[in-house]
Task: inverse folding
């Protein structure tokens, strides 16, 4: 059903396999939760993979008062909309409905750690850019989870190494935010652009943000995608669609 909806892959794991993942706040961006904190009856976690082959999948719209997640004030600003999530949600909802029609509880989640859950679902490996790298599509992925009370057959976790000696993502990052399998979040252009109100970010990062981030309108921007775009894994699949 996921393939029929337009996802390129899907995988299943059990909540027990996600016991020791990193939960809690990630640098003021998001509070990552355990599947059972969101759905107490959860028996299976499904990860759906959208092929995000163009950087416009990272288009985001923020209201004029938006200063960043750490400053969020519901009275003053509406929450940002992120293209990849919007597309994934519309494709995933029929699967949620199908599970519910069959008597199971089911709901979407973007709050569990999606990359590491994807790895547990056999969908790929953690790359040197810290993203989930799928053997066919590389890191150009939009991830979405469905938590359900249905007890489904689980997939085998991914264990292959896809990066080898390659360091393209590390070399290409304009702010030098990456070291192998690690990111300095304060140097990531995406963190900078999503947090315009943060005054303590390195000044060279703010300068590069002004130079490199595309802003289609005053209230929108396209998130930096360089560390995903340069990855040789799945490059052929992305190029196939491009002009
Ligand atoms: C917080 C967040 C950010 C933050 C912090 C990034 C980060 N790496 O944590 C900021 C704002 C910087 C960010 C930026 C981006 N993000 Co973001 N982000 C998230 C979010 C909400 C949580 C990420 C998370 O779990 N962080 C926790 C830390 C601890 O995880 P980690 O860095 O991966 O560290 C683990 C591994 O690296 C591993 N590890 C550490 N060392 C080693 C060593 C070895 C050898 C190995 C194997 C593993 C390993 O262990 C660590 C702990 O488990 C997710 C959505 C979600 N709910 O999961 C999206 C998400 C990860 N982001 C995504 C994307 C696409 C991006 C951007 C490309 C921007 C864009 N265009 O959309 C950039 C890429 C920057 C980068 N290289 O990470 C996608 C990733 C798709 C994919 N292929 O994996 C997600 C899943 C959103 C989505 N729905 O699709 N993001």
Result:
């Amino acid at each position: 059903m996921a393939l029929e909806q337009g996802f390129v892959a899907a995988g299943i794991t059990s909540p027990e396999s996600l016991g020791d993942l990193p939960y809690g706040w990630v640098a003021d961006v998001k509070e990552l939760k355990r599947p059972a904190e969101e759905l107490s009856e959860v028996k299976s976690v499904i990860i759906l993979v959208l092929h995000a082959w163009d950087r416009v999948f990272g288009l985001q719209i923020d209201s004029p008062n938006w200063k960043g997640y750490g400053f969020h004030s519901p009275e003053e600003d509406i929450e940002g909309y992120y293209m990849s999530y919007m597309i994934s949600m519309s494709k995933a909802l029929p699967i949620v409905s199908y599970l519910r029609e069959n008597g199971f509880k089911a709901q979407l989640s973007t709050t569990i750690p999606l990359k590491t859950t994807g790895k547990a679902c056999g969908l790929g490996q953690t790359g040197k850019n810290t993203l989930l790298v799928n053997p066919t599509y590389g890191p150009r992925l939009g991830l979405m989870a469905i938590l359900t009370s249905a007890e489904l057959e689980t997939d085998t976790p991914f264990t292959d190494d896809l990066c080898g000696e390659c360091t393209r993502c590390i070399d290409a990052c304009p702010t030098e935010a990456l070291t192998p399998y690690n990111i300095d979040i304060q140097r990531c252009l995406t963190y900078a652009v999503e947090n315009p109100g943060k005054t303590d970010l390195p000044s060279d990062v703010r300068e590069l943000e002004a130079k490199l981030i595309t802003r289609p309108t005053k209230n929108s921007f396209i998130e930096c995608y360089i560390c995903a775009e340069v990855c040789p894994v799945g490059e052929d699949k992305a190029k196939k669609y491009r002009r």
Remarks:
- The chain has one domain: 2-241.
- Residues 22, 26, 29-30, 32, 58, 84, 110-111, 113-116, 126, 129-132, 139, 141-143, 181-183, 185, 188, 190-191, 194, 223, 225, 227-228 surround cobalamin (CB under 6 Å).
- The CA atoms of residues 108 and 180 lie 31 Å apart.
- The longest strand covers residues 44-51.
